[in-house]
Amino acid sequence: MRYHCLQHVAFETPGLIANWIGERGDVLSFTGLFQNDPLPAIHEFDGLVIMGGPMSIHDEGELAWLKKEKELITAALREKKKVLGICLGAQLVAEALGAKVYPNSQKEIGFWPLHWTEAARSWLGFSCLPGGEEGPGSEGRADAAGGWPTESLVFHWHGETFDLPEGSIHLAFTAACPNQGFLLGETALGLQFHPELTPAMVREMMVYEGHELASAGMPTASADTHSAAPLAPYIQSETAILDQLSSLKGNEKLLYPLLDRFFHGLRPE
């Protein structure tokens, strides 16, 4: 199978997605939109992988390539290509499917619990592992022998969100963001969170976008109680993020079943 990756910035690569593709002997090509690489023709790929980035999908006035990228995504969906979007990529896919993309009520940066819907577990073909049960599920990872966790600790870095496209399946949510994932038919999968990351990738994101962490832990006075409340309750500090990098170990056990199911229709044995 031929995959093509749309990459918006140098430091948000496909990461573990590229590992999954390589382990299966498939082909992965790239368009570096940040360096004005040409977009592929629609017949040159079978699956499209759209990465994240610090820009907004509404920045067409500042980013000359954004309109052409949107046209390619729309064409890929029309041609029934497999289209996976991560973070900004999920927002681009949602918009291409007619859904609204807008600022979330809170920025969400750091490691926050992700709650899986019953529809997600049904689609994946896993039974449900209750939260806190011993075994792989207790770490928020998939376990083909036991089930799929109700909750996973995953990494987030976003300020915008999307409505669910009409007819799509709602896959996941967090306390800060109700729409963390969707599936439409067999062709479109959008994930607002980042299951593709390695510790090195998170560190690089903090190098380039660490200024967004400045409001982490800053208090603001409540007019009603005069007590201190977080100004940005869902933005973790650099220290807090670095202390949790071990949570990324075994991310393959979360990501790979999603990719297997979406791109190849594979369910656990």
Shape by Cα distribution: globular
Instruction: Look at the structure and give the mean pLDDT.
Output: 90
Please list the strands of the largest sheet in the order they lie side by side: 2-1-3-4-11-10-9-5-8
Structural class: alpha/beta
> Percent helix among the residues?
10-25%
Q: Treating each run of at least 4 consecutive H or I residues as one helix, how many helices?
A: 7
Q: Beta-strand percentage?
A: 25-35%
What does this protein structure show overall?
The protein has 269 residues and is an alpha/beta fold. Mean pLDDT is 90; it is low at 130-139. β3 (47-50), α2 (66-78) and β4 form a beta-alpha-beta unit. The longest helix has 13 residues, at 66-78. Helices cover 25% and strands 27% of the residues.
Topology of this protein?
Layout: E1 2-7, H1 16-23, E2 27-32, E3 47-50, H2 66-78, E4 82-86, H3 88-96, E5 101-116, H4 118-124, E6 128-129, E7 148-149, E8 151-162, E9 169-173, E10 181-184, E11 188-191, H5 199-209, E12 219-221, E13 228-230, H6 238-243, H7 252-264
Notable characteristics:
269 residues, alpha/beta, Rossmann fold, 9-stranded mixed beta sheet, two-stranded parallel sheet, 25% helix
